[in-house]
Description:
The complex is a heterodimer of chains A (319) and B (298).
Chain A: H1 10-28, H2 34-53, H3 57-64, H4 72-79, E1 81-85, E2 98-105, E3 108-115, H5 121-126, H6 134-149, E4 154-160, H7 167-171, H8 174-187, E5 192-201, H9 202-206, E6 213-217, E7 221-223, H10 227-234, H11 241-248, H12 252-257, E8 263-265, H13 276-295, H14 299-312, E9 316-318
Parallel strand pairs in A: 3-4, 4-5, 5-6, 5-7, 6-8
Antiparallel strand pairs in A: 1-2, 2-3
Helix pairs in contact in A: 1-2, 3-11, 4-13, 6-8, 10-11
Chain B: H1 5-9, H2 17-21, E1 30-32, E2 39-41, H3 42-47, H4 63-70, E3 77-79, E4 83-85, H5 97-108, E5 114-121, E6 124-131, H6 142-158, E7 162-168, H7 176-196, E8 200-209, H8 210-213, E9 222-225, E10 231-232, H9 236-243, H10 254-259, E11 265-266, H11 269-283
Parallel strand pairs in B: 6-7, 7-8, 8-9, 8-10, 9-11
Antiparallel strand pairs in B: 1-2, 3-5, 5-6
Amino acid sequence: MSQNFLDFEQPIADLQARIRELQFATAETDLNISEEIDKLTRKCDALTTSIFAKLSAWQIAQLARHPQRPYTRFYIDSIFTDFEELHGDRLYADDQAIIGGLARLDGQAAVVIGHEKGRDTKEKIYRNFGMPRPEGYRKAKRLFELAERFKLPVFTFIDTPGAYPGIGAEERGQSEAIARNLMVMSQLKTPIISTVIGEGGSGGALAIGVADRVMMLQYSIYSVISPEGCASILYKSAEKAADAAEAMGVTSGHLFERGLVDRVVEEPLGGAHRDEEQMAASLKQALTEELKGLAEQPLDSLLTNRNAKWRSYGEYKEG
Amino acid sequence: MAMSWFEKLIPSRIGTSQDKSKGNVPEGLWVKCNGCSSVLYCAELERDQDVCAKCGTHMPVGARTRLERLLDTDNRTEIAAAVEPVDMLKFRDSKKYRDRLNQAAKDSGEKDALVVMQGAIEGQPVVVAVFEFQFMAGSMGSVVGEKFARACEHCLEHNLPLVCFSASGGARMQEALFSLLQMGKTSAMLGQLNERGLPFISVLTDPTMGGVSASLAMLGDIVIAEPRARIGFAGRRVIEQTVRENLPEGFQSSEFLLEHGAIDMIVDRRNMRDKLGTLLGFLMPGVRSEVPALSHQT
């Protein structure tokens, strides 16, 4: 299977190519070079470990947007069972950039909602590259309220470059749709767990991210504006995106240290796309643990805690 | 407000910080309208609350000036005045964030981009938060979020309605995710007001964009806009680059939003105080009038 390598992964790609050559040679001839292959494989793992041990914020941003990175639908299908997709905002349309519905986590009924980016060109266009319009957020809001009505916990999966900046989106109240979700989520009478699985792009991400527990996959990013956007405004050059990513501290490690996310879910060596099943298993474990913790809380303390948590964000001084 | 035309004529030798905050009124007797280029007499413009008498253009107003004109003169108290920004990320782009903060403080006379006061409008107690656009384009970072949260808490504690005048380019990039989360913070606080049945009136002034528009500003029980303000989520340039077509006439203006059902009304600044008084009277029954609130018990 051809792996899609990023620039900084080139040394790994080279090694893997050599391993494949040797494997090919073994099949062709009777030469026993399995020892050599094992050695190279170990070397390759060590190299990957060392490269991934010191990734820059910009490199992590590239992993977060990796074309093979698992999307929401993958996690719904591999972590949950019995997914019933629910469509539409009942007002205007069914936005394909956000999917949602009913599903079970180890038998426990739940509402799942997430951005969906689309894999090939055709699907990317269908999904609008994971950039929701107001109807996407209003569909999510409808599902939040449905969850509250039927006492179902909510799991959201965040993976968007941002809310769609289009004429129709503005005409139909993109700002209001996002704002409303922030408020509705903050007071929703059921547990909410949000996980940034790829790109947490600004308000378009937060609009399904006001949760009791906010988690990030290790190589996902979460930021107020894309590194490119920040660079073009503040540095007057989109080429400075790497600098902007560093300055904004968009990575899970940094944000966890700052207390802005509650938990980081470790990814398989080389990133989620290198071992999707393992990724799904670790995420499932984290979701299960978090839900258990929240389900134990009486509803009024859940809401008190959620409000206190969101009230607490921010750093300032009083002189 | 009480300043007479005569006092305005005499150049002040002692520059108070309050005078400075009226930065939009240039020194001198005459000023050109941003809209129709008419030359306007400063004292008249002041009387008209910085609205051009010729074309109705609403010119920018500093936060304190707005509060000064809006609130009854008695019993005003500033809330959370001491909250100041910190450069928690040691953020540096083409300039250091610290330097930008210092410059903004100098330009605006404020510590950050929001001023909150408790006071009254036509005798009705109210908490009013006003964005200061002169401070880093009214961008929302930790201080704006915190002051807004304290405004809400003050309302919750004393059963008061909240009014907010927004003027903001959006979330403040220099505080990165801290800024984004202020959208959640302010909206959650408004959620508490909502649960308690305390009214929030949001007044959108030019411009109200991005993260401020997509959080507190659009969450009013009643949403008002000043005429011809620019209001939207994404900036025009971003939209043009994305859709590669020309934007419709009047796109993202107050009038456009009213037509599309996004706001309740457009109110001329000169009538704003009256209008807010009337609306608060509806939403806070019993505060001004003697008529008891409707009761479902018989």
